Every structure is written in C-alpha cells, then in structure tokens.
C-alpha cells in the first residue's frame, strides 16, 4: 500500500538578477575560446573568477592556473590575465618574456585603471576605497608608481586620512564593494574635503549594485537567506552582509548544495536564494532540485531589474 508523504510547504524567493555578470561571462568565454583555438594547456594567472566550481570545470578542460608568470614553462600557449585585472608590472613582465598573453580584465575594472592614470597625470592625490590584498585592488594600485594611491578600507581609515593637499584629492573604488558602506565613506570624505573629485561614473559595478538592491528588497521576507558563492568572492561576501543588515540575520554563504545546513531549513517557511556575480546558475538549480525533493516548494520570482549588458571579446586567434 502506497502512502503519499505530505511534504512541508516552503516558499523559495529567487533573486533576479543573480549570478554571472557580463565581466565574468566575458572572462570565461575568453578562456573557453582560447582552448578551442590553441588546445590545452591554456594558462591563467590567478583564478579567472572567484568561484571554485568554475575553476575546477576549466581545469578539467585543460586550463592550468598559476599565481605568478614564473610558474609557466617556456610556451607559445596563451597566458590569460583574470577578470580582476593585474598590475602594470605583470604586463611588462609578460612582454619582456615575449609571452602570448590575453587580458580578460573586466572592462569596468579597466575603467577604474584608466581613471587612476588620468587622475595621477593631472596631479591628484588618489584615494582608493577597497579591500587590502584583493586582486582587483592590487591590480589598481599597481597601475601607478609606488605610494601613488592611498587605500581606505573602512570608515575608520577615512576618519584618520589626512591628505597632503586637501584641494587636490580624488577617490576611486573597487567595483565589488558594499554600496552602503562605500556611500558612508564617501559622505565622510566629502564632508571633510568638499573639493574631493568623484568618479565621472560610479565605480561600483552595475551587477554588484543590482544584486545588493534585490537583497535589500527581499531579505525582510526571509527566515533564512542563502548566498551561493565562494568564500573568497568579495561581491558574494557583501551580499551576506547586506542580507543581515536588511532584516535576515540568518544569512549564509554556501559554495554549493553540499554546504546547506538542513537543520536551519527544516522548520522555516520562507527561504531566499541569491548568487554572487561569479557563481554559475547550475549551482542554484541544484539547490532548488534538492529542496524540491524534501519540500513542497513554491518558487517566487521577482525581477528587480533586467540586465542586458554584454562586453565584446578581444581577438583570440592563434599566432
């Protein structure tokens, strides 16, 4: 005799937009097209994007990830710079070694690099708002001579900062910061230094902003929020922080379905799922499938904004 098991109902709110941004898609396409054109191995300096699933899948296809160019043997195979960007010294080193390199830096990160160089040429004292040791920050600081950029990580750094010439300062930012934290820092800097020059267009990227705004809107409805992303992904970590501030104290970062703590899901009614800009959609779908096995899932999609941005690929042709 078959007895149907009655599953507990679970409302699952899906963030839209979520997951891959245009810069991440472009970087992965550059690697995959390089594999088609050149064959394996293709070398990538640093993780192409901050997601273990993406990196592991590319390793299976023949990508070799390195941290420094010195780790690469003499080769005519391409060396790809990650989406986070690299210092000028890395580019010069690659040129000196006559390496066949392809730059997969996100165009929005490149925009910040261009801003920094322009401000430096115009004689501005430059502030970079960002996280120390993040590869994007290292790459941006490395666009200019040593000690040309002052790093501010938080509001306390901003309070302590004293410029040499308060009338000739400017700020730029990392592209994956907390929007609210950055606004607080910028507001303090502007109150102290009314003449401070702002970026012509906001440096925090559209994808970071959109994903945080969705969380602000929906977190208040959730008993638990799951952010799909890697622990070294800045934009994913920021989503967890925004979730907690926006009313969902039980906001957690998970790499994949295997990291779900089911004890925190079993007795809730409303679950919110989002994904960082470097997390592939397949990870979200695996979570939904697993939830559907355990619960009577009601999916609730609420699109905050449509994202139709794409970036042109560089020429990838065997030399």
UniProtKB/TrEMBL annotation:
Keywords: 4Fe-4S, Iron, Iron-sulfur, Isoprene biosynthesis, Metal-binding, Oxidoreductase. GO terms for molecular function: 4 iron, 4 sulfur cluster binding; 4-hydroxy-3-methylbut-2-enyl diphosphate reductase activity; metal ion binding. One of its GO terms (biological process) is isopentenyl diphosphate biosynthetic process, methylerythritol 4-phosphate pathway. It comes from the Bacteria. InterPro entries: LytB/IspH. The active site is at 136 (proton donor). It catalyses: isopentenyl diphosphate + 2 oxidized [2Fe-2S]-[ferredoxin] + H2O = (2E)-4-hydroxy-3-methylbut-2-enyl diphosphate + 2 reduced [2Fe-2S]-[ferredoxin] + 2 H(+); dimethylallyl diphosphate + 2 oxidized [2Fe-2S]-[ferredoxin] + H2O = (2E)-4-hydroxy-3-methylbut-2-enyl diphosphate + 2 reduced [2Fe-2S]-[ferredoxin] + 2 H(+). Its cofactor is [4Fe-4S] cluster. (2E)-4-hydroxy-3-methylbut-2-enyl diphosphate binds at residues 50, 84, 134, 175, 233-235, 278. This is 4-hydroxy-3-methylbut-2-enyl diphosphate reductase. The gene is ispH.
């Amino acid at each position: 005799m078959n007895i149907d098991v009655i599953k507990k109902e679970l409302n699952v709110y899906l963030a839209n937009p979520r997951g891959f941004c245009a810069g991440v898609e472009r970087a992965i396409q550059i690697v995959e097209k390089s594999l088609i054109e050149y064959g394996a191995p293709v070398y990538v300096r640093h993780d192409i994007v901050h997601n273990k699933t993406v990196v592991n899948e590319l390793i299976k296809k023949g990508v070799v990830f390195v941290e420094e160019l010195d780790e690469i043997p003499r080769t005519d195979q391409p060396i790809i710079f990650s989406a986070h960007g690299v210092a000028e010294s890395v580019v010069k080193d690659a040129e000196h070694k006559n390496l066949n390199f392809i730059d997969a830096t996100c165009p929005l990160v490149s925009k910040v690099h261009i801003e920094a160089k322009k401000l430096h040429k115009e004689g501005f004292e430059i502030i970079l708002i960002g996280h120390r040791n993040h590869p994007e920050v290292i790459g941006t600081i490395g666009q200019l001579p040593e000690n040309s950029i002052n790093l501010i990580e938080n509001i306390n750094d901003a309070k302590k900062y004293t410029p040499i010439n308060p009338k000739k300062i400017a700020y730029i930012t990392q592209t994956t910061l907390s929007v609210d934290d950055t606004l607080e820092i910028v507001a303090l800097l502007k109150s102290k230094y009314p003449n401070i020059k702002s970026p012509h267009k906001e440096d925090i990227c559209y994808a970071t902003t959109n994903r945080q705004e969705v969380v602000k809107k929906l977190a208040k409805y959730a008993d638990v929020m799951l952010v799909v992303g890697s622990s070294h992904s800045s934009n994913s970590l920021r989503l967890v922080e925004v979730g907690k501030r926006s009313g969902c104290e039980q906001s957690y970062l998970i790499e994949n379905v295997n990291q779900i703590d089911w004890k925190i899901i079993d007795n809730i009614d409303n679950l919110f799922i989002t994904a960082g800009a470097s997390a592939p959609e397949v990870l979200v779908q695996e979570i939904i499938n697993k939830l559907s096995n355990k619960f009577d899932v009601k999916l609730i999609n609420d699109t905050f904004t449509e994202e139709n941005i794409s970036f042109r690929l560089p020429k990838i042709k065997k030399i």
